[in-house]
Design brief:
Order of helices and strands: EEEEEEHEEHHHHHE
Distance between the termini: 20 Å
Strand order of the largest sheet: 4-3-2-1-5
Structural class: alpha+beta
Radius of gyration: 24 Å
Number of strands: 9
Length: about 220
């Protein structure tokens, strides 16, 4: 097994050394001991050195939040709507009666499922944001902590609201009496709910903007010997 030099990553394995002339692999998520030899070329190769820069958790956190706040105000990246515009586009799709009236039953099932799953995923994401910001607040300079704590509180309130209203405004297809129950009146209520969610999300992101803009950038020069 090699300590330094080149390492290679395979689709489901990591190269950890050599056996004769073959790369020796350790499968990801292996449930038993043992290695296997490579049967194909690696799709990624990296270089391991004797020293590597240790990433500063606080600096990385601030960089990630700066990007997140920028994306929240960015209308689109490639084919995908972002941030506020994503909420607007989501509501537009719910109110596009002409397109929705042409859906077959399987397509309508898929649309209802997609809406419900996306709202549930949003609740999970905001719960993750609370955990992330709570940890970052502990690492951040004192000047940034109030804004981080406020944002975490707003995201926690939003997560709670999403779970409370999920069955009302984003039922799964099997929770409806029939697919036809997903009618214009319900979709209009769903779109209005999304507008409220977008406003709440926006207030939380405004706290993050305040936090990352009021604190100087961080540079990390710590090395692991």
């Amino acid at each position: 097994m090699q300590q330094w030099g080149s390492i290679a990553a395979h689709g489901r394995s990591l190269a950890v050394g050599y056996e004769n002339s073959d790369l020796l692999l350790r499968p990801y998520s292996a449930r038993q001991e043992g290695y296997e030899t490579a049967s194909r070329w690696a799709w990624e190769v990296g270089e391991v050195g004797a020293k590597t820069a240790r990433l500063d958790a606080c600096a990385m956190g601030f960089a990630a939040l700066r990007l997140a706040t920028e994306l929240f105000e960015t209308p689109r990246v490639g084919r995908y709507a972002c941030g506020r515009n994503a909420y607007r586009r989501w509501a537009e799709l719910l109110l596009d009666e002409l397109s929705l009236s042409r859906l077959t039953d399987p397509e309508r099932f898929a649309a209802i499922l997609g809406h419900a799953h996306t709202l549930e995923s949003l609740a999970d994401a905001r719960a993750a944001a609370v955990n992330y910001l709570t940890l970052l607040s502990e690492l951040a300079p004192a000047a940034a902590r109030p804004a981080f704590d406020e944002a975490a509180g707003l995201f926690a309130d939003l997560e709670k609201l999403l779970w409370q209203k999920h069955r009302t405004f984003a039922p799964y297809p099997w929770e409806l009496p029939s697919l036809s129950a997903w009618e214009p009146g319900l979709r209009s209520e769903q779109a209005a709910f999304l507008s409220d969610v977008a406003d709440r999300d926006g207030r939380a992101f405004a706290c993050l903007v305040r936090a990352v803009n009021d604190v100087p950038s961080f540079e990390s020069s710590t090395l692991i010997p």
